[in-house]
Amino acid sequence: MNPKLKTANTLIAASLCLAGLTACASQAPTAVPDSYLQGTALDRNAIGVTKRTEFLEISIDPMSSQLSLKDKARIEDFVRTYRTKGHGPMIVSLPETSENSQLAVEAIVTAREIAWQNGVEYDEIAGSSHGADSDASEPMIMAFQVYDAIKPDCKSMAEYDVADIRSNNEMPSLGCSIRTNQAAMIADAADLLGQRELAAGDSMRRKVILEKFRMGESTASARSSAESGAVSSAVQ
Description:
Residues 217-236 are annotated as: Disordered. This is Pilus assembly protein CpaD. Among the domains are: 34-45 and 151-185, no CATH class; 48-150, CATH 3.30.1330.60. The protein is 33% helix and 16% strand. It has 5 helices and 4 strands; from the N terminus they run αβαβαββαα.
């Protein structure tokens, strides 16, 4: 065979081998799902968020002149829940059909007072009415929006073939139990939807700190002797 032709054939064969190796290296193993190439194990077991309405109904007793202590306690618990994880205004709805209209109005006033005593501002409370076409006596209704964290759907370990190690990757179940525990511990699931708005800073305090900085003084707050953290050496 012509030496030049032999050399050309050798180069062509080498090029084909290199091309084949490059093609193999650029493709993921067939046993690895596409989802494994995007994000992390926690991303593949994301926590869901749903919004729902929390309700409280307070019956209007036709024979009473004020709400019972039990009903007041229920309203207070409801308001505390609103303070913890409620969103939007707290709705207080007056029943337009009631066998005791005076108590119905008094119940609205009492609910607003309890809310204010527990830190809910009046502008956070929205009034409403319901039951205009009802034939029966309606209760007072309170409501607000809440968000719930939904845990991922973790499959049973019996559904996985633990002997299949072709992909050499973590199992699909990795991270699912962690996300489940996180969903149970989250106080307010709305935080998963984005950061909360920051309240305005204290401009007066900022001015004091800036003046001290300009004067070369310490910007730390003054401490009295009563705030000392020293351990007493007195014999007990």
